[in-house]
């Protein structure tokens, strides 16, 4: 979260909606300070989840491989078709 912005608590309170949209849309974090001291951080739910439950390395590798092969664009229905085809080939 190196794209952080520091604002005062008063500014955050007066512009909360605008700041919330910026955090959500641009994936930036926001440090809120009071009397010159950092007190809180506002961040998107996506960034919070990444911090709270980091993606295991194996999932990161699978994701990269999927993007490389282009399979990340498959719909759920297409994935089900691939699974069913694989199951049918094992039965034979």
Describe the model.
The structure is a single chain. The model has no long low-confidence stretch (mean pLDDT 88). This protein has helices at 9-14, 16-26, 45-52, 57-69, 76-91, and strands at residues 5-8, 30-34, 37-42. The relative contact order is 0.11. The chain is elongated, with a radius of gyration of 21 Å. A 3-stranded mixed sheet has the order 1-2-3. It is built from 5 helices and 3 strands. By secondary structure, it is of the alpha+beta class.
Topology at a glance:
Elements: E1 5-8, H1 9-14, H2 16-26, E2 30-34, E3 37-42, H3 45-52, H4 57-69, H5 76-91
Parallel strand pairs: 1-2
Antiparallel strand pairs: 2-3
In short:
With about 90 residues, this protein is an alpha+beta fold.
Widest β-sheet, arrangement of strands: 1-2-3
The chain-level structural class is: alpha+beta
The profile of the biggest β sheet is: 3 strands, mixed
Tell the overall outline.
elongated
Low-confidence stretches: none
What is the radius of gyration computed over CA atoms, rounded to a whole number of angstroms?
21 Å
Strands, total number? 3
Termini gap: 51 Å
Report the β-strand fraction as a percent range: 15-25%
Order of helices and strands: EHHEEHHH
Mean pLDDT: 88
Helical residues, percent: 55-70%
- How many helix segments? 5
């Amino acid at each position: 979260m190196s794209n952080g912005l520091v604002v005062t608590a008063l500014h955050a309170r007066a512009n909360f909606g605008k700041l919330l949209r910026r955090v959500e849309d641009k994936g930036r974090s926001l440090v809120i300070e009071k009397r010159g001291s950092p007190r809180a951080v506002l961040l998107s739910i996506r960034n919070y989840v990444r911090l709270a439950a980091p993606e295991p390395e194996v999932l990161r590798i699978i994701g990269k491989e999927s993007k490389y092969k282009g399979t990340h664009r498959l719909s759920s229905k297409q994935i089900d078709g691939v699974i069913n085809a694989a199951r049918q080939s094992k039965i034979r």
